[in-house]
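User: What would this chain look like folded?
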Amino acid sequence: MRTFSSWFAGRALPAIIGIIAVSFILTIFLIVRIADAQNTASLQRTAEFAEAAVSRQREALERTAKDYAAWADAYRHLHPQVDLQWSYEEGNIGSTLFPDLGIDHLLVIGPSDDTAYAVVEGKLSANAVAERLLDGGIRALVARARESGTETVPVTGFLSAGGHPVLAAAAVISPGDQDDVARAPGPTSVLVLASGLTPERLERLAGEYFVPALRSVPADGLRPEESIAISSEDGSLRLALEWDAERPGQALIDQVLPWVLAAAVLMGLLAFLILRYAVRTARTIEEGARELAAAHRKAEHLAMHDAVTGLPNRSMMSRFLDSSIGRESGQALALIYLDLDRFKPVNDTMGHLAGDLVLGEVANRLRSAVREKDLVARVGGDEFVVALRSVTAPAEVELLCQRLKEAVSQPIRLDGTDVGVGMSAGIAMAPTDAQTSEELIRMADIAMYQAKATRRGSHQFYSPEMNDLIRQRRALEIDLRRALASQEFVLHFQPRLRAETLQVMAVEALVRWQHPIHGLVAPGDFIPLAEETGLIIPLGDWVLQEACRAAACYPDLVVSVNVSPVQFRNGDLVEQVRAALSSSGLPASRLELELTEGVLLENIESAIKSLRALKALGVSLAMDDFGTGYSSLGYLQHFPFDRLKIDKSFIAPLGDREDSRSIVQAILSLGRALGMSVTAEGVESAEQLRVLRDDNCDELQGFLLGRPMPAEQLSELLADPARSMAEASAV
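Assistant: Here's the prediction, encoded as structure tokens.
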């Protein structure tokens, strides 16, 4: 009779060991397959990154070549003869391309195929020969570029310089789309830009595109999955870009397989330990699969959600709207398109991290205010969308808008400071206003912009008339462009008086639009549109020129000119001021520029540089509307201002509220401590005048002392200063 032990030893144990052995073989095979799959995925991903790096470099070089080659000024100065003064000395197309864009070689191949112009690493190379600077078939590359005829169509290829591969782009130099430029007969000139793939540059690309150890090597014995073959135009240079892709699968094998083999040895002696270890191994593999599935779900979530707030993004919102519109008969879908008010100053002054915290808090408040079946999405920088299903009446949406505004407007605590934002919203309904998601979003967006234009912090339902308002806005933009060309703008001047003597010390130049149909148009009706469209830059230049010209007619009169934020950031303000002073003959000491606090805080270093350049011209600088923004004492110490202008919102309550006087006195003390003159704006009552004079304010400005007036009336005022002082004293 066979005992259990003999049965187990003779039959069961071999069977168990065999089963375990097969299981281990399968486990090892699975690990190797997983490792191989990981290695393959890593190789493919790194190869894609490497190809993207080369492709992006090629595209960037083509764009740069086209930008400079299809340029009327370049055509005039580089073809058929090269103007060294314009190109190199003035820096129009020369040394700046090396530090700014990494262009190592810049060549102009003339109509006769000679090297008419060469700049190597930012330095002019006289009597250069193209083949000595760039070999590997530069003539073939130039010939390919000329195949486009007289049109600028960049072509790229590989050349070599100093033993290193060079990515080069060539393009025919042409006037571009300017048909008024006369074209020279005969062969074309070609612009060649080259960027060397040196070890240093390849190292930088490796870091930017996650391609480990990217390098150039001879084209022999390459690993196809870890290299890109490159050859010069004439085939004389055959190299490759090679890299060392990560192999995560090998790490998996190195870490797991020894333990599996050790366990297999122990399984021969202790079967139950082998079984237990097999279970644990299976669990480990299962856990890895779960982690992989979780990572996949996370990637899908990120593709449909905003990274900052966690809200659905525009893609998920569009899916939601497509699936919801028309789903329930008799019930509407409401879309609320909202934009945060006063968010940009928070982002500019406190930093993007603080701005992200504000966005996250707003997102939480919006989510808490809607039902579970509704959707809240972030669709832009400070723009959100709330989609409401099963809406039976507009009154429901009206109530929700009120709740949303109350929730958003509650103070947000950041680093011990209360930050306040608001919201303006536009509402569109489906199917009443739109039948598709795209149209519904557009209608709500139009309504939101109309709400912001009417009154910030409000909300409006879409109506067909709003399309008319959009058309009117476009018509106003066309009218504004025509007005600039027709010189329909005029300047009015508001006097600024010394508080002690009530003597006119300066005037502020204020622009008005003398419309041929509507008459005199106030700046509030056209300045916002001018800033939005960029027309404020030529308009601001005209104001500067006219103000300086008018002030030059009056001895010792200082003129103050407002500078728009758009003009300060995007215009060449320093050159505009220099030109206005030069053409008018006005001494720089009699020109004062007024800037608001907000324009200075977007890029503090750039703002300080611009202000110092203006101060170097000799003009004075005034901070306008002081107290309404976010300036700190530290900013005031860094910015070279000569004057503070107290905003009229602090002047209006003087005489009625004692705390207002305390605030004004504090600003006056701050100005004296910093060595700045202080001007009070918006003086409109005798009591305000008395308080400001008693508190030793330096200068005063307001309707009480003089309204904005045309130049003729200003001449009368300045011709009889005693009368103006008497009128001011009488009040």
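The chain has 26 helices and 25 strands. If you want, I can go into more detail on any region.
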